[in-house]
Structure to design on (245 residues):
């Protein structure tokens, strides 16, 4: 059972956790990741950011990534939420939650989904800082993290 | 900006729709461009648009530019046909 959503509004980690666990007696493991807006990037103080996406393709990309995770590991539930639009410091951007009978699969699948999302889901960040707005550059390390999955 | 559900189905017959995102959209000054009776590959389309609009040439030739055709990642050699939705964008930075 997958829940995938690109949304403008904030999400509640407590509600997401509840949705992953509700009447889910077979899964003994739940791993969650939350990514949020940090205050410093590439040498400049960040005030906030704007996230843009490609409606239609972004959702499809997230569905493909989730389907591939399911093909690799025995997963129960997957919930993947990503915000777009203006975001403030410390706002949560992305939530990935997975359940599985065992922790190894849950840990691995959660990281795999995030690593792929970072390198292929069509989202773009524009940061606003003291020196003006700038589009965030892709990081080489994210590509290397992805490549380790083979 | 639509948030979920996405934009409508790709255009039909005789026309391709080209979308630009993020820094590329700002550099070109437009989010969308329509082209009639085009046939060629993704890389040929980049060249063609640069010839039509000299200001677009440098941004569209950026080495790290990525392309999608009908919402799937595309290669330079991917063929484009009538009714396709083509998108160009810089490397992604979500998460």
């Amino acid at each position: 059972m997958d829940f995938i959503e690109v949304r403008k509004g904030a999400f509640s980690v407590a509600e997401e956790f509840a949705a992953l666990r509700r009447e889910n007696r077979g899964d003994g493991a739940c791993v969650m990741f939350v990514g949020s807006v940090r205050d410093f990037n590439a040498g400049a103080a960040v005030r906030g950011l704007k996230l843009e996406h490609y409606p239609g393709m972004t959702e499809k990309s997230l569905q493909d990534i989730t389907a591939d995770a399911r093909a690799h590991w025995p997963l129960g539930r997957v919930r993947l939420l990503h915000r777009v639009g203006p975001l403030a410091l410390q706002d949560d951007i992305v939530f990935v939650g997975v359940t599985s009978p065992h922790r190894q699969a849950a840990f691995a699948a959660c990281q795999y989904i995030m690593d792929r999302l970072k390198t292929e889901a069509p989202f773009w960040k524009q940061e606003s800082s003291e020196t003006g707005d700038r589009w965030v550059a892709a990081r080489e390390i994210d590509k290397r993290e992805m490549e380790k999955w083979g | 900006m639509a948030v979920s559900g996405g934009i409508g189905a790709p255009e039909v017959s005789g026309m391709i729709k080209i979308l630009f995102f993020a820094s590329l959209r700002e550099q070109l000054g437009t989010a969308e461009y329509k082209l009639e009776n085009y046939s060629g590959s993704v890389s040929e389309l980049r060249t063609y648009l640069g010839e039509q609009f000299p200001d677009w040439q440098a941004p569209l030739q950026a080495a790290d530019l990525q392309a999608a055709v009908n919402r799937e990642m595309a290669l330079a050699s991917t063929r484009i046909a009538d009714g396709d939705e083509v998108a160009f964008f810089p490397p992604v930075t979500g998460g």
Observations:
- The helical segments of chain A are 13-21, 57-72, 103-120, 140-147.
